[in-house]
Amino acid sequence: MSRKKRGSSHIEMVVSFSFFMLFLLFLFIYIKPYKTAGFSDAVLSTLEENFVKGTKADYVSFLLKANNTGAGMITDFCIKMSGFPFKVSGSSRVLKSGVVVKSYTYNEQNLVINNISVVCINDTLSPGQSDSYYVYLSTEFGMGASVPNNRNITSYTVGGIEKKEFLSNKSLIIMKDYYNSQTIYPNLKTEVLKIPDNMDFAVRCEDCEGDDYTMKRGIPDLSDVYSKEGVYHVVYPNGEIKNKKFLFMVWQK
Fold first, then answer.
1. Least confident piece of the model among 15-29, 147-161, 207-221, 234-248
2. Does 9 reside within a domain?
3. 240, 173 contact by CB (below 8 A)
4. Which domain holds residue 177?
5. Which residues, at least 6 apart from 141, have a Cβ–Cβ distance to it below 8 Å?
6. How many independent structural domains does the chain possess?
7. 3-state secondary structure at position 33
8. Same domain assignment for residues 151 and 180
9. Is residue 124 part of a domain?
10. Beta-carbon-side half-sphere exposure of residue 29 (alpha carbons within 13 Å)
């Protein structure tokens, strides 16, 4: 009788051990307790950093005071600024009263000797009159109507030069088009955004209000998705700047 009980106990132990091993196997396959978020967090940070790097636009602002020291009224005038830290040329336009937006070419060298930058303003100044303008420069801005370059003002003051980096509306649209292109997507993923081959990604604009920059694709049902949010300024061709919230997501394929 005791031998039968002992045999029965051994069988129960084996069955219990088998169920325990199956339970552990279930944990490792489906719940994945061994998986840490460290690597995915690093990939997320890389995605956000390279996303910003690939869509940013320089944005320069300064205050310009123009003085008409001549005897006659002057209309549609240009100011040639010697030694200005940014190379400015081409046409500009008045966005609203006292505000000028302008497309420009950024010169990496600061305070270049003999560097001449030109800001043209379609405004009118009476003899002896002075006026101030907030000037905003960005590669994002569209070019305005050209202003004649034959009426120059030599008396001017520049102050409050400030350079920032915002996200570019144009570049965001281009990156979304690359994301949706079957031929360009692989290069965008691995070369531009530095996402590993065994992972995939998406970027969603949370509050676009019609400006759809969202890049998304199907996420496998059993994939663990890691995400983080970032809020950035986006500059538009008309001179507007808006705050946009982006959700960055990565997962294993």
1. 15-29
2. no
3. no
4. 35-55+169-252
5. 101, 102, 103, 237, 239
6. 2
7. coil
8. no
9. yes
10. 6
Q: Give the other-Cβ count within 10 Å of 253's Cβ.
A: 10
Write down which residue in 138, 164, 190 finishes a domain: 164
d(CA 32, CA 220): 16
- Please state the length of the chain: 253
The pTM of this model reads 0.67
**Which residue reads 């663990």 in tokens?**
224
* Cα 94–Cα 96–Cα 98 angle in degrees, nearest 5: 80
Residue 221's pLDDT band, with cuts at 50, 70 and 90, is confident
pLDDT value of residue 196: 92
Q: Which H helix or E strand runs over 187?
A: helix 185-187
Dist CA 4 CA 23 (whole Å)? 29
Distance CA 81, CA 115 (A): 8
Tokens of 127: 């003899």
Predicted confidence (pLDDT) per residue in 91-133, tens digit: 444 444 445 555 444 333 333 334 556 777 777 888 998 888 8
Task: Kindly state whether residues 187 and 160 are assigned to the same domain.
Answer: no
For the stretch 30-75, pLDDT in tens is 555 444 456 788 999 999 999 999 998 878 888 888 899 888 888 7
CA dist., res. 142 & res. 243, Å (int): 20
**Two tokens, residue 130:** 């002075």
Residue 213: helix, strand or coil by DSSP? coil
Same domain membership, residue 149 and residue 118: yes
Report how far residue 18's alpha carbon sits from residue 153's, in angstroms, rounded to the nearest whole number: 90
Token output for 129: 């009159």
Indicate if the pLDDT at residue 183 is higher than 90: yes
Last residue of a domain, one of 111, 141, 164: 164
